[in-house]
Write a structure and sequence with these properties.
The protein is α/β, with parallel strands linked by helices. Helices cover about 50% and strands about 10% of the residues. The strands form two sheets. A five-stranded mixed β-sheet has the order 1-5-3-4-2. A two-stranded antiparallel sheet has the order 6-7. Helix 8 packs across helix 10. The longest helix is centred in the N-terminal third of the chain and has 26 residues.
């Protein structure tokens, strides 16, 4: 005898069938909004499309502001180059085609493309390799011409999200890549590792109303403690200028992430309550100066900016502090030098638009001192 289904289970099956049908429709609808294709190009192509027009921020394959920082150290860059020589699989580069310009915005792969450009341009000397140890100490130009051609003709695959994809889809893609395949960003990790009064202080400073007003955070980094990262960088670079060394850690050798880790660790252990109050006074003084001097944009590169570039923030914040140390009552009469225009790049634009090595000590000094000097040159007398 066939077992009858009780009414309560009939309702359950009806509900489940309806829900599954809605799910199928939803999947099909959302799939239509994701349009992409996979392309394959040579390394020479990627490097050319990245470098050509970069000085005016008009390169065909470009790094968006929120990814401008070049964070790979020499060891990681060298291992990546070694992987290509060895013929190992390389992760796909992910770009989005921007309808208004036709340019390709790098969503995932900026460190790889910039490493390739640095190597081919002889700005990267290979080091610390174990498998291809004979490559250590060599630049690209030292290779035999045939090996150079083979390297440049090696191909990498690229996923291109087409213009049919809405900005919402592109943003969602970035979020998924950066939460599923990328480790925690610096401040997220530091807060779990280094605890103490300086950690609490950084959080308190990032919550200042004036700081929040002057320093818009890109939506890509909302809830990822980017505001605290900026505050940390302000104090770390201001305290260690001009050599950027602390506790046996040298920025030039270790890279910015390790340098900031060491600074964060030391300040948690050595700063007193009085030290922290003095640092707060310094920060507030700089914030008030920036509010007076750049009332329409604060730390944004442009009026109504929705994000804050790390390198621009560092340049303006620490550069202003260096100027205020020389002239505490500083009032600026002209800020035209600070206006950025890729069609007519000025000194500041060029200092900020690094292709790679954005946080070498020399690059940081150049930015900070340029802002300091421009502020002092344009001071009211």
């Amino acid at each position: 005898m066939k077992e009858e289904i009780t009414p309560i289970y009939q309702d359950f099956f009806v509900m489940t069938e309806a829900k599954l049908e809605k799910l199928e429709n939803q999947i099909k609808q959302e799939q239509q909004s994701v349009s992409y294709d996979i392309r394959e190009f040579t390394i020479e192509y990627y490097v050319d499309k990245y470098l050509k027009g970069i000085e005016k921020d008009d390169n065909e394959i470009y790094v968006p502001d929120y990814q401008r920082e070049f964070i790979w150290d020499y060891g990681r860059q060298s291992r990546f180059i070694e992987s290509i020589f060895l013929g190992l699989p390389i992760p796909l580069i992910f770009v989005a085609e921007i309808e208004e310009t036709g340019r390709l915005e790098i969503v995932d792969g900026s460190q790889r493309i910039r490493t390739l450009a640095a190597y081919v341009q002889n700005d990267l000397k290979i080091q610390n390799l174990k498998k291809l140890s004979e490559l250590n100490g060599l630049n690209f130009e030292h290779l035999k011409p045939a090996r150079q051609r083979i390297f440049k003709n090696s191909s990498l695959r690229m996923i291109v999200l087409s213009t049919k994809a809405t900005p919402e889809v592109r943003n969602d893609m970035f979020g998924r890549i950066n939460t599923s395949s990328v480790p925690l960003v610096g401040m997220e990790t530091r807060r779990g590792v280094f605890r103490g009064p300086f950690t609490d202080f950084i959080t308190e400073m990032a919550a200042l109303k004036l700081f929040k007003k002057l320093c818009p955070i890109d939506f890509h980094f909302k809830d990822r403690r980017e505001d605290e990262e900026l505050i940390l960088r302000f104090f770390a670079f201001a305290d260690t200028y001009p050599h950027f060394k602390i506790g046996g850690t040298d920025l030039d050798r270790t890279g910015v992430a390790n340098f900031l880790d060491r600074y964060y660790e030391l300040k948690n252990s050595e700063l007193t309550k009085d030290d922290l109050e003095k640092r707060k006074d310094v920060l507030v003084k700089v914030l008030k100066f920036v509010e007076r001097t750049f009332p329409e944009r604060g730390f944004g590169k442009y009026k109504n900016s929705q994000s804050t570039s790390r390198s621009y923030f560092e340049a303006i914040a620490v550069g202003a502090l260096l100027a205020l140390r020389k002239k505490p009552d500083l009032v600026i009469s002209d800020i035209s030098w600070s206006h950025l225009d890729k069609r007519n790049p000025n000194e500041l634009f060029k200092a900020l638009s690094g292709k790679y090595h954005t946080h070498r000590p020399a690059s940081i000094r150049e930015r900070l001192e340029l802002v300091r000097d421009k502020l002092l040159e344009n001071a009211q007398h």
